[in-house]
Design a protein that fits this description.
342 residues; seven-stranded mixed β-sheet; four-stranded antiparallel β-sheet; 13 helices; binds pyridoxal-5'-phosphate
Length: 342
């Protein structure tokens, strides 16, 4: 078997239960573009997990989910506020700006989380035609730094947004990891705390491909089916995306996989923290570990295990655990780190 690495939860394969669901869906002909029985079942499962009145649409990937979800709730004279580290800001090649026309206002944060106090100064722009009008607060849950917003923090961001005629968008590429971390249901940390639009991640949690855009107020979704098609994210053989979501949202697979990945990240952090020259830089609240490793050791480690340097300036690396990371993987990696980083 090819060695598993800690580079990304995207580097992992497909969970066997998801693969089985794809195979089971591969039976005869069904109507294309989502008008099929597997898609209806998957949508019902979303309604079970998130609330009976959500509107849900499947797309191919996470950038598409973010960009199209944001496009459906903005005009180009408006602004989307996010953390500097947000995927929408640094890892989507400008697609959010390109497709929405909106300005992204990216705010610095030490841990990937936006806070209400940082947002208040932006209110001065309201009503001034010379300034873009703040419309969306976009956060990532879990964040790109592996941290997790508490329910209280989510509630205060949504209240601030709604009090100021704005909306709360969540990039939930790793929302399953966040829910597990908070010991919460998916609904607890979305519908129940005032989230308006969510990109629900499947790929990082064991799917082959596919993400969902979930609208907690159906009125916001009125034009989404056109936006999705124009945005090139309407899968014709939708049943295969739907089958994967059906597997993920059945038998607690979303939870089991995320819980496993989170606990492997914790174990990795505990072991790395014992190595004197390594410093863990962020609280390990989901499936990512951030650590400063002296630069001279990094290429030696990367020869055996590929991973990303997250912040070159401070020699901080990112290590991700996945649904299939094993204790043995961690022991082997830590053994190498101990031998190398002396
Ligand atoms: C926080 C976050 N959002 C969204 C995505 C989705 O990206 P993609 O378009 O590669 O599926 C990723 C993937 O790395 C991510 O880390």
């Amino acid at each position: 078997m090819t060695q598993r690495s800690f580079a990304s939860d995207n580097n992992a394969g497909v969970h066997p239960e998801v693969l089985r669901a794809i195979k089971a869906a591969n039976d005869g002909h069904v109507i294309a573009y989502g008008d099929d029985y597997i898609t209806s079942r998957a949508v019902k499962l979303f309604q079970k997990h998130f609330g009976s009145d959500v509107a849900v649409y499947f797309v191919f990937g996470g950038t598409g989910a973010n960009v199209l979800g944001l496009k459906s709730i903005t005009h180009s004279h408006q602004a989307i506020i996010c953390a500097e580290t947000a995927h929408v800001n640094v890892d989507e090649c400008g697609a959010p700006e390109h497709y929405t026309g909106c300005k992204l206002i990216a705010l610095p944060t030490p841990d990937g989380k936006l806070r209400v106090d940082q947002l208040k100064p932006l209110l001065h722009a309201f009503g001034n035609e010379h300034h873009v009008q703040p419309r969306v607060i976009s956060i990532s849950q879990a964040t790109e730094m592996g941290t997790v917003y508490s329910k209280k923090e989510l509630k205060s961001l949504s209240s601030f947004a709604h009090d100021n005629n704005m909306l709360l968008h969540v990039d939930g590429a790793r929302i399953a990891n966040a829910a597990v971390s908070l010991n919460a249901s998916l609904k607890d940390i979305t519908a129940d705390v005032g989230v308006d639009v969510l990109s629900f991640g499947g790929t990082k949690n064991g799917m082959m491909y596919g993400e969902a855009v979930v609208f907690f107020d159906k009125k916001l979704a009125t034009d989404f089916k056109y936006i999705r098609k124009q945005g090139m994210h309407l899968p014709s053989k939708m049943r295969y995306v739907s089958a994967q979501f059906e597997a993920l949202l059945s038998n607690n697979l979303w939870k089991r996989s995320a819980a496993h990945a989170n606990s492997m990240a914790h174990m990795l952090a505990i072991e790395l923290a014992k190595i004197p020259k390594i410093k863990i830089t962020q609280p390990v609240e989901s499936n990512g570990v951030f650590a400063v490793v002296p630069p001279k050791y990094i290429p030696r480690l990367q020869k055996k295990y590929f991973f990303y340097v997250w912040n070159e300036e401070i020699s901080e690396v990112r290590l991700m655990a996945s649904f299939d990371t094993s204790e043995h993987d961690i022991q082997e990696f830590v053994r190498l780190v101990r031998k190398t980083v002396k």
